[in-house]
Amino acid sequence: MTRLIFLGAPGAGKGTQAQTLAHHRNIPHISTGDILRQAMQRQTPLGVKAQDYVSRGELVPDELVNDLVEERLDEPDVEHGWILDGFPRKVSQASFLDELLQQKHSDRNVRVINLEVPDDVLMARLLGRGRADDNEEVIRRRLEVYREQTAPLIDYYRDRQQLVCVNGNQSLEEVTAELLDVIDS
Ligand code: ADP
Fold first, then answer.
1. What CATH fold (topology level) applies to the domain 2-31+82-184?
2. Binding site: what residues are annotated?
C-alpha cells in the first residue's frame, strides 16, 4: 500500500514526480493545485472562490481545500493507495488530514516526502515554466508563503517520524529512482 504526501517548495518537482510515481504504482495522483486550476478554468463555484487567492500566490482558505480533499478521499479509486501533492500546505490542514485519516483507520503508513531544492534553482525553474501564476512577483509571494506556512510541516512530520528527505536537485530520472527506492523500502 502506497500512501504518500509530497512536501516541497513551489518548483521542487512535486507535481512531476508525484505523477510519475502514481503512474508506476497505478494509484491516483491528487494535486490540489491541478484540481483548483481545473475548477478555475471551468468557472465552477470552487474555481470562482479560489481564483483571487491563486492569482496572488496566496493560499486559498482551508475550508475550500479541506472539503475537496475529503471528497476526493471518499472516491473508490483511493482504496489501494494515493499520492497527495500540494496538500497539506499548512499545519491546520495537516491536523485536518490526520483526523480524517484516523477516521478512515488508515493513518499508520502514510509517508511524507520532502523534496529539497535550493532557492536559486527553484526561482529559475518557476520562471522557466510560464504558468499563469508564474510571474516574478507572484512567484516571490508563493515562495514566501511556502517558507512561512508550509515549511513548518517539515518539523511536524519529522516529529511524527513520517518524514523522508530526498534531494530534488538531480535529474528527473535520478529523483524518480530515489523515490522508488524509498517507497519500496
Ligand atoms: P506550486 O507549483 O506553487 O506548488 P500548486 O499547483 O501546488 O503550485 O498550487 C497552486 C496554487 O493553488 C497555490 O499557490 C495556492 O494558491 C493554491 N493551493 C494549492 N493547494 C493548496 C492548499 N492545500 N491550500 C491552499 N491553497 C492551495
1. Rossmann fold (3.40.50)
2. 11-16, 32, 37, 58-60, 86-89, 93, 129, 131, 142, 170
Domain boundaries, the chain: 2-31+82-184
Closest CA to 113 of 37, 34, 57, 181: 181
Catalytic annotation, residues:
14, 89, 129, 131, 142
Tell me the best of 59, 91, 114, 135 to mutate to test the pocket of ligand 1, counting ligand atoms within 8 Å of each CB and taking the most. Answer: 59
Ligand 1 atom 14: residue of nearest CA: 57
Please name which of 149, 185, 148 lies closest in space to residue 166, comparing C-alpha atoms.
185
Average pLDDT over residues 150-167: 96
Residue 184: its pLDDT value, please? 85
Q: Going by CA atoms, what residue is nearest to atom 9 of ligand 1?
A: 33
**What pLDDT is attached to residue 107?**
55
What string of DSSP letters covers 64-97?
HHHHHHHHHTTSGGGTTEEEEES---SHHHHHHH
| For residues 57-80, average pLDDT | 96
Q: Is the CB of 59 under 6 A from ligand 1?
A: yes
Radius of gyration over every alpha carbon of the chain, rounded to an integer in angstroms? 16
**Which of 59-68, 77-86, 87-96, 102-111 comes out lowest in average pLDDT?**
102-111
Q: What is the mean pLDDT of residues 7-33?
A: 95
